[in-house]
């Protein structure tokens, strides 16, 4: 009698599932795999465990949830119509989102699909005869814990399920924290150390444990008026961050923006990331999302442009201005990197195609770039690419300059196509023929700078160890020696550290979690005046509530929705 195996093979295509709470997978007959070696079969079982990460980390899923809901990013109706989407981005920023928000639903479904595929691998890998199966089993179980961290952080709950055929139990608060902790600790001994950053490693688990312990006080009581951090949790943050730093396996990058380049898979600062190397057909959305529709980063592709998505809020921009006044924020190399010389020398209006690279970081004011007319780029007499002032030709507004303003809000003036300073942190992939696909940059989940800053925070919160915290922060600041590093700080406090995390990790999908932990999420900014603490976690999608309605009391909507 042929046995059945629960597996999704990358070689055969990934089967999508829609079940939200039962986490069911399709059962495939082993005859599909009879011609594969044990190693190939194990690879095929493992690949789907990671396969949903690029989808989770798209611009309208996890990014929108973690950034547009904060004081860092805002996405108004561009020109009164574009990015309308029935007001979901306006609501997300103003904390008036509902359980029918499609971005929340999509993120929920994708995370649970990743969890489901992890369970499939956990149930299947023990029968594999290949030696790699032991490591893969640890990775699959660790990834289930990582997906559980995401649901706990976003929706305040964790699904626990060990077999495809059973109904998940639901954990919240301290039980959820303890479950994730126990899972990560259980798998750490069997993980590799040098296969990252696209796979779960010992270093990645240490980093996730540090992140879990640092946020544990919030996760145990997400609606608390005042968050109480336990010293034993903070000791664990210090322990695991110490292990990562002492390992010598990771290095702070000299060039800040190289962390987000298309070839960043080998960057030593990365600890855990979404593997998006070219052969994996990753996406380019974090690079094009904020750019103007008349910014074209690739001389070879006249259809690869931006989409006039979110800009940074004036509130967030002012944190840079206030920190460095009377100097411009560009004294900090994390703020901006000029690649086009025309910005400082207007005569440099002809650039060889192979040398053309758009600027990085926070883009302000009049933008310059490739001039496109009638679908083709204009060239200089010597054959080089013509570079000049940009206007909104693609929006049929040829007199509106691509001149990014600080003001951005929901008013008519504040929601025009050119409003808001933009962010180009991830490099626009040289192979992104559409502007949307073939992004090669690995998307950062954990990197070494976060390890230093988590350790600094734990020391501040535990014993107000200002000297050690200041040393950790300045270590990160001083490391960016490819240009002049940011000046060393001379004082340290939780407020300064919070500001520093905003400078170091902007656009990296950490802001919402940071704001909640630092007690800033009920503050007012831009168009957001809602101070309801229930908005710290998101509503469970209505589709999930409806799908579980056959089990009375099983899936209860979060408070305030």
UniProtKB/TrEMBL annotation:
Entry keyword annotation includes Ligase: no
Location within or outside the cell: Cell outer membrane
Organism: Arcicella gelida
Segment forming the signal sequence: none
Segments crossing the lipid bilayer: none
Pfam families: SusD_RagB
Keywords from the named record: Cell outer membrane, Membrane, Signal
Protein name: RagB/SusD family nutrient uptake outer membrane protein
Family, as annotated: Belongs to the SusD family.
């Amino acid at each position: 009698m042929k046995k059945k195996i629960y597996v999704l093979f990358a070689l055969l295509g990934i089967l999508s599932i829609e079940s939200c709470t039962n986490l069911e997978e399709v059962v495939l007959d082993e005859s599909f795999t009879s011609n594969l070696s044990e190693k190939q079969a194990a690879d095929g079982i493992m690949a789907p465990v990671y396969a949903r990460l690029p989808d989770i980390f798209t611009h309208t899923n996890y990014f929108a949830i973690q950034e547009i809901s904060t004081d860092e990013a805002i996405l108004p109706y561009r020109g009164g119509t574009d990015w309308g989407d029935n007001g979901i981005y306006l609501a997300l920023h103003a904390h008036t989102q509902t359980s029918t928000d499609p971005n929340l639903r999509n993120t929920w479904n994708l995370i649970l699909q990743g969890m489901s595929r992890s369970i499939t691998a956990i149930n299947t890998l023990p029968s594999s005869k290949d030696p790699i199966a032991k490591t893969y089993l640890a990775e699959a179980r660790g990834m289930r814990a990582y997906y559980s961290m995401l649901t706990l952080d976003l929706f305040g709950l964790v699904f626990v399920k060990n077999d495809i055929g059973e109904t998940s139990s639901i954990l919240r608060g301290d039980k959820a924290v303890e479950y994730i902790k126990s899972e990560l600790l259980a798998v750490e001994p069997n993980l590799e150390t040098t296969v990252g950053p696209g796979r779960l490693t010992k270093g990645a688990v240490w980093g996730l444990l540090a992140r879990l312990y640092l946020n544990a006080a919030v996760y145990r009581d997400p609606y608390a008026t005042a968050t109480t951090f336990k010293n034993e949790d903070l000791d664990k943050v210090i322990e695991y961050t110490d292990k990562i730093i002492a390992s010598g396996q990771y290095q702070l990058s000299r060039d800040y923006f190289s962390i987000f380049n298309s070839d960043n898979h080998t960057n030593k600062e990365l600890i855990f990331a979404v593997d998006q190397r070219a052969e994996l057909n990753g996406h380019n959305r974090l690079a094009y999302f904020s750019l103007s529709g008349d910014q074209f980063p690739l001389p070879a592709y006249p259809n690869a442009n931006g989409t006039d998505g979110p800009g940074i809020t004036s509130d967030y921009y002012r944190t840079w201005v206030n920190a460095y006044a009377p100097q411009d924020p560009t004294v900090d190399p994390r703020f901006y990197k000029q690649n086009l010389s025309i910005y400082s020398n207007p005569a440099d209006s002809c650039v060889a195609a192979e040398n053309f690279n758009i600027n990085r970081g926070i883009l302000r004011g009049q933008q310059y770039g490739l001039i496109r007319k009638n679908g083709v780029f204009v060239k200089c007499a010597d054959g080089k690419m013509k570079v000049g002032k940009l206007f909104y030709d693609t929006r049929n507004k040829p007199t509106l300059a691509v001149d990014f303003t600080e003001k951005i809000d929901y008013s008519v003036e504040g929601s025009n196509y050119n409003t808001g300073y933009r962010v180009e942190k991830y490099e626009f992939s040289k192979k992104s023929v559409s502007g949307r696909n073939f992004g090669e940059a690995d998307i950062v989940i954990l990197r070494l700078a976060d390890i230093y800053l988590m350790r600094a925070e734990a020391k501040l919160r535990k014993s107000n160890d200002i000297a050690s915290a200041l040393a950790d922060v300045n270590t990160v600041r001083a490391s960016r020696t490819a240009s002049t590093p940011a000046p060393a700080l001379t004082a340290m406090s939780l407020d300064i550290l919070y500001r520093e995390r905003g400078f170091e990790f902007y656009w990296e999908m950490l802001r919402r979690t940071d704001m909640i932990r630092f007690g800033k999420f009920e503050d007012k900014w831009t168009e957001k005046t809602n101070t309801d603490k229930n908005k710290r976690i998101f509503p469970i999608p209505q589709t999930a509530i409806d799908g579980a309605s056959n089990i009375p009391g099983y899936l209860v909507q979060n408070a305030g929705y």
